[in-house]
Design a protein that fits this description.
With about 170 residues, the chain is an alpha+beta fold. The protein has two domains: about 5-50 and about 115-169, no CATH class; about 50-95. About 60% of the residues lie in helices and about 15% in strands. It contains seven helices and four strands. It has helices spanning about 5-35, 40-45, 50-65, 75-95, 95-105, 115-120, 165-169, and strands spanning about 125-130, 130-135, 140-150, 150-160. The chain has a four-stranded antiparallel sheet. It is globular and about 50 Å long. Mean pLDDT is about 75; it is low at about 5-15 and about 165-169.
Length: about 170
């Protein structure tokens, strides 16, 4: 078999795997959107990785505390509080209503029909076989990051475009 055919077959297999991961993830992203629309806390919790999101909040709080020059000796104190602050923030922020407000900033309108699985697949970019991210445009950076965890794709982080860390800085 000519070498170029083997290269094309390998490339097609890789693209197929990435597309399959994106399509599979799109089903869980759609379920997350349904939970948001319906203000369904249980459905929402089933499609987020609360621990990963809490860790990202804690890291953002810690980074903010470490960058603060005008606080004098308070950086170390603020760093100590990062974990408890992240716990409180997670309880207050990781709720469907809060995500509905954030989604509106990205053009989500609750009066419109939710995008279907194929449309969602088009807005996902495969990072690897266990990670996909949602992008605003084909070549755009990751806004929302999803990992496959316990058989489901769960929201596990925010890319820089989401502005989560930026708003804390």
């Amino acid at each position: 078999m000519p070498r170029w055919i083997i290269v094309i077959m390998a490339a097609a297999a890789l693209v197929g795997c990435a597309t399959a991961a994106r399509f599979e993830a799109a089903g869980d992203v759609h379920a997350l959107l349904v939970a948001l629309r319906d203000n369904d806390q249980a459905g929402f919790d089933a499609h987020i990785d609360r621990d990963a999101l809490k860790d990202q909040l804690e890291q953002a709080i810690t980074t903010r505390a470490e960058k603060s020059k005008k606080a004098g000796g308070l950086e170390a104190f603020a760093a100590l509080l990062a974990q408890p602050l992240a716990e409180v923030a997670a309880e207050q922020l990781l709720r469907p209503k809060v995500f509905q407000m954030a989604a509106r900033q990205f053009g989500y309108d609750p009066s419109k029909a939710l995008p279907d699985r194929l449309m969602i697949t088009g807005s996902l970019k495969a990072v690897d076989d266990q990670t996909v991210c949602a992008v605003k445009s084909k070549s755009g950076p990751c806004v929302l990051i999803f990992h496959k965890l316990d058989g489901a794709w769960r929201l596990s982080g925010f890319g820089p475009e989401a502005g989560i860390g930026a708003k804390l800085r």
